[in-house]
Design goal:
mainly alpha, 2 strands, single chain, about 5% strand
């Protein structure tokens, strides 16, 4: 073999097949069991820029703000979840201080809902990708969110006395009970998020690493 000849294709023993890109179907070759950052064809992110950095994992979740496709690692899920909880805790502390000083009563509550509204979508997306990493679909999360929306809507309608002949006190009590039971389903989702991934590719794409 001519020493000046360079090998541009995958090298046996170094490059291994890791599955297909979930977006374009391009075969993904992992180098020493590490995925490339991007799909070589459609440039879809296959893993975070630095898997060991929580900051990069948080940025990766924000970059995939509306994207439930693919898979996410435990590190990515918990980096974003803990960061979101810290931000919400800081906001709650500021709101509590404002309330004690009488400032909250004079201002509208809507600005305090901006941060939770901005965080809910990337949180749902990374949760879906975390479930994908375990080989599960998003059914559990959809049911969890549906129970919250329906229960809160029924409770709000009852408190505002909208359609009192339909949204009775017994319906509101049932909604409260369903909302409390939903805590169990949320705990199951969080428990699944702590579990080890399925190594290798699955129906949702190659394993990010």
């Amino acid at each position: 073999m001519n020493p000046s000849t360079s090998t541009t294709g995958p090298v046996a023993g170094i490059h291994t097949y890791a599955g297909d890109c979930p977006i374009c179907g391009q075969a993904i070759m992992a180098e020493q069991r590490r995925l490339p950052h991007l799909c070589p064809t459609c440039k879809h992110p296959l893993r975070s820029a630095d898997p060991n950095s929580p900051w990069h994992n948080v940025l990766h979740c924000l970059k995939l703000y509306f994207d439930p496709r693919g898979r996410s690692t435990r590190r990515e899920f918990w980096a974003f979840t803990i960061s979101a909880l810290v931000l919400l805790g800081i906001e709650a502390g500021i709101a509590l201080a404002c309330w004690k000083n009488g400032m909250l009563e004079q201002a509208s509550l809507w600005p305090w809902l901006i941060l939770p509204a901005l965080l809910i979508c990337p949180f749902m997306m990374v949760t879906v990708r975390r479930l994908h990493d375990l080989g599960k679909n998003a059914t559990l999360l959809i049911v969890f969110l549906a129970i919250i929306v329906v229960s809160c809507s029924l409770i709000a309608l009852h408190s505002e006395q909208v359609l009192p002949e339909v949204i009775t006190a017994s319906v509101a009590d049932w909604a409260w009970a369903l909302l409390r039971a939903d805590i169990i389903l949320g705990s199951i989702i969080l428990y699944l998020s702590t579990q080890h991934r399925l190594y290798g590719p699955n129906q949702y794409g190659p394993a990010p690493k």
